Every structure is written in C-alpha cells, then in structure tokens.
Amino acid sequence: MASETEEKDAVTDLQDRMLDQLSNVIDPELRIDLVNLGLIYGLSMTDGVVTVTMTLTMVGCPISQVLQNMIETSLEKLPEVNDVKIKIVWEPAWSPAKMSRYARMALGYHG
User: Fold this and answer.
1) Nearest-angstrom CA–CA distance, 31 and 9
2) pLDDT for residue 31 is more than 60
3) CATH fold for domain 4-95
4) Cα 97 from Cα 51, distance rounded (Å)
5) What is the helix (H) or strand (E) element at residue 46, kind and residue range?
C-alpha cells in the first residue's frame, strides 16, 4: 500500500506532466502556450478522465474549438489519460496579469 507521501508525489508528478503537455499547446493567434498565457486554471483526474478547467482570452473566442482539440490531443498522449473533458469558466476573468513574465515579455505587454 502506497504511503500518503508517495500518493501526493504521484499526483504532483502527473500534474507536472500534464502541464508539460499543455505547455506544448500554442495559441495560434498569440503564439504563446496556454500555460504561460495563464489560461489553465486547474487540472484534475478521476478514473483516467482529465478535467481541464480553463478560460479563454475573450468570450466568443473564434479558435476555442481548435484549442480544445489541441488540448485533448496533447493530454491523451499520457498513458494514464483515457479521456479529456474541458470546462470553460469565465470567473475569475482572464487578464494580461495572469500571463507569466515570459508571455508578457514575448507579447510586449508592460502593464
């Protein structure tokens, strides 16, 4: 039986690998990955089904379906993942302040 510490380490490892996968999903318009853009709000997994809680830069984003397909394809590369569900939320609202320093510099945002 795995200890509580081992289970937490396994969860952290899986979360890290999921974030690594998502860092390869590049927004085609902004040319920055979703993680650095600050669009990923949470990741959870139950019985091989990953739920990605995320937002978009704006309501009615014209590439939302493209991004969702890219996310699914990326996460399904992990052996533990059988299915991906994407939950789009609008609270808290996305703003450039949610971007990483790298993304702000790459996009020339100085706000």
Assistant:
1) 32
2) yes
3) GMP Synthetase; Chain A, domain 3 (3.30.300)
4) 24
5) strand 40-46
Task: Give the angle subtended at the CA of 19 by the CAs of 16 and 24, to the nearest 5°.
Answer: 135
Task: Look at residue 4 and tell me whether its pLDDT is greater than 60.
Answer: yes
Per-residue pLDDT reduced to its tens digit, 95-106 = 999 999 999 999
**String of DSSP letters for 73-101:** HHHTTSTT-SEEEEEE--SSPP-GGGS-H
Contact 48, 81 (CB under 8 A): yes
Residue in this structure with the two tokens 């830069």, named with its chain if needed: 57
Q: What is the pLDDT of residue 111?
A: 65
Give the bridge partners for 54, in sequence order.
40, 88
- DSSP secondary structure code for residue 31 in this structure: -
Task: State pLDDT tens for residues 59-86.
Answer: 888 889 999 999 999 999 999 999 999 9
The ranges assigned to domains in the chain are 4-95
